[in-house]
Specification:
This protein has 17 helices and 25 strands. By secondary structure, the protein is an alpha+beta fold. The longest helix has 27 residues.
Length: 604
């Protein structure tokens, strides 16, 4: 039911309208002659405060404001994958053909292509029951049939959660239909179309939450081994300008073992989003060998678009993710960056004359962040299968100051923190994730999974992290008195830490071998480094000088073992694990020979 009102006051993207007292909170509103889209964010007696998501330049007091009577919703159905949307789910490619590089206020295009026909295959068991005169109960999540959306993704058409009928009376036969086609009906006369609307601010229901004991494998060693993220987990990547937040998210989007990727550009600079829009269609999915866009949805919301649209782009993205989660897919969301969303909240709060909190941000900033991150999770869906939504949010603290409110509030709601370090970024160390400031609370939960890959995972991981912390303390002494003043056993810590940094933590995203590292190779590389350290310690205790250990070679290779350890990551392909065992034998033989010679001297 449409409720009509009139605009009484305009303050940027905040519009106040009278006569909408019968409308509901978060209802969709069309404002002015151009019918620009807005949302009611506050009701004050007969006046509604509307947040508009399009440019309202030229809007005048007295213009009409019509509430549609339904909340702001996303259209969910086949055709989402491979599409580039703005925050309110308008397809940007179709709008470009309509109005060029700059969108006209009020421009409209259907979120899904209504002219395209999809090959629908009904569920055989369900179709047989209906053909036999039965009326199967349309429980929420019941799979009615499938559509091959892309070669990589099968879209399952399900009974939506808001159906109240007691029996299905009709299910269409296999054939080609558009997304608006009604494919099923209930005994209450309810129609179930192929594409269905869902309010973006309301989380889609699931049967139950599952433990987060499976890692989201990214192929980045510093993440997978040191600071793992589980499927259904939440992570933040904070870092100052130029530290590599976007590049890290790109790498995760390309290589992680999620089935569907949703990339949300929330208030980012236009050139960064342009890179995403131009690069992603040409990237190859390493699992299928096909275009990465066949399992990717992009939501582009640049800094020159209306600030209010940053908020809705976040909610739209997570709603699309839940839709594919309900089909049984593992979905990864890249939100770049949540700081721009928080800045939009700050501006909107100021225009609504609300009392500001720390640094001008609204007092409800933590609540909004919590609402977003809490929609992540690994669940058993209503249809009985397992699915997950993992959220990786970039945070852009001004000047790289992690004590600012957005970073601090984000840390309350995430369990994995990948802190980017400016010094590492300046040294061209990629990914520039600090091993001192980062942490993961999922390590214990995903431990059993990793121990099936390699039983030594927990031990070598902890030993390496302890050694890197010890190296940090020693580095402060080295700055004062130089490395030569340290005893050899402490200098060995510095040498081994350098091997871990160069040969394990640093990855070359342009190297065909090193750009992605399988879990088994990740643990083996770290195991070899820690094995070298352990055996070198024994030699030093027996009196062997560090320079002799550093220059030690193995087999017929004249290159020192220390240098070969650093190069193994790029010299040994993922499938050639046998070469790592060959190197291990050479290294152990060389170190044992050195140890034996010094034990002999000690005996004599």
């Amino acid at each position: 039911m449409t409720i009509n009102g009139k605009v009484r006051r305009i303050s940027g993207p905040i519009v106040r309208a009278s006569g909408l007292d019968g409308a509901g909170l978060f209802d969709l509103v069309e404002v002015g002659e151009k019918r620009i889209i807005g949302e009611i964010v506050r009701l004050e007696q007969d006046e509604a405060v509307i947040q508009v998501y399009e440019d309202d330049t030229g809007l005048q007091i007295g213009a009409g404001a019509a509430s549609t009577g339904r909340p702001l919703s996303a259209l969910l159905g086949p055709g989402l994958i491979g599409t580039i949307y703005d925050g309110i789910q308008r397809p940007l490619e179709a709008l470009f053909k309509q109005s060029g590089a700059f969108m006209d206020p009020g421009a409209r295009e259907d979120p899904l292509d209504t002219a395209k026909l999809w090959s629908f295959v009904p569920d055989p068991a369900l179709a047989a029951k209906i053909a036999a005169g039965e009326k199967p109960v349309p429980v929420p999540g019941l799979i009615l049939g499938t559509v091959q959306e892309t070669p990589s993704i099968v879209c399952k058409i399900m009974v939506p959660p808001n159906i109240h009928g007691e029996g299905l009376t009709e299910l269409v036969k296999a054939g080609d239909y558009n997304c608006n086609t009604v494919i099923a009906r209930t005994d209450h006369g309810e129609e179930i179309p192929m594409a269905q609307w869902w309010p973006v601010r309301i989380p889609r229901p699931s049967a139950k939450r599952l433990p987060q004991d499976q890692p989201l494998v990214t192929g980045l060693r510093v993440i997978d081994v040191f600071f793992p993220l589980s499927k259904g987990g939440t992570s933040a990547i904070p870092g100052g300008f130029g530290t590599g937040k976007t590049m890290t998210q790109h790498a995760i989007a390309k290589w992680c073992d999620a089935d569907v990727i949703i990339y949300i550009g929330c208030g980012e600079r236009g050139n960064e989003m342009t890179d995403v829009l131009t690069e992603f269609p040409h990237l190859t999915d390493p699992r299928s060998g096909r275009s990465l866009m066949e399992r990717t949805i992009l939501i582009a919301n640049t800094s020159n678009m209306p600030v209010a649209a940053r908020e809705v782009s976040i909610y739209t993205g997570v709603t699309l993710a839940e839709f594919y989660r309900d089909m049984g897919y593992h979905v990864a969301i890249m939100a770049d960056s949540t700081s721009r969303w928080a800045e939009a909240l700050r501006e909107l709060s100021g225009r609504m004359e609300e009392m500001p909190a720390e640094e001008g941000f609204p007092a409800y900033l933590p609540t909004r962040l919590a609402e977003f991150y809490e929609r992540a999770g690994r669940v058993q869906t209503l249809s009985g299968v397992e699915g997950s939504v993992s959220i990786i949010g970039a945070v852009s603290p001004p000047g790289g100051d992690f004590s600012e409110p957005v970073t601090q509030h984000t840390k309350r709601f995430i369990r994995c923190f990948w802190a980017l370090d400016r010094d590492l970024a300046n040294a061209r160390h990629y990914p520039a994730i600090s091993w001192i400031d980062s942490y993961s609370e999922y390590a214990e939960e995903v431990g059993p999974w990793w121990e099936k890959v390699n039983p030594l995972w927990a031990r070598v991981r902890q030993e390496a992290l302890d050694l890197l912390k010890k190296e940090q303390r020693l580095s402060e002494i080295v700055r004062l008195i130089g490395p030569d003043a340290l005893p050899d056993d402490q200098r060995l810590v510095l040498v081994t830490a350098d091997i871990i940094k160069d040969g394990f933590l640093q990855q070359n995203s342009f190297d065909e071998v090193d750009m992605y590292c399988i879990p088994a190779k990740q643990v083996r590389l770290l195991e070899l480094v820690m094995d070298f350290f352990e055996k070198a310690q024994v030699c030093i205790k027996l009196g062997a000088p560090l320079i002799k250990i550093s220059s030690l070679t193995g087999g017929d290779n004249p290159m020192p073992l220390r240098e070969r350890l650093s190069r193994l990551k790029g010299d040994v392909k993922n499938e050639d694990s046998g070469k790592l065992s060959d190197f291990e034998q050479e290294m152990r033989s060389a170190l044992e020979n050195l140890e034996r010679s010094y034990r002999t001297k000690e005996t004599l």
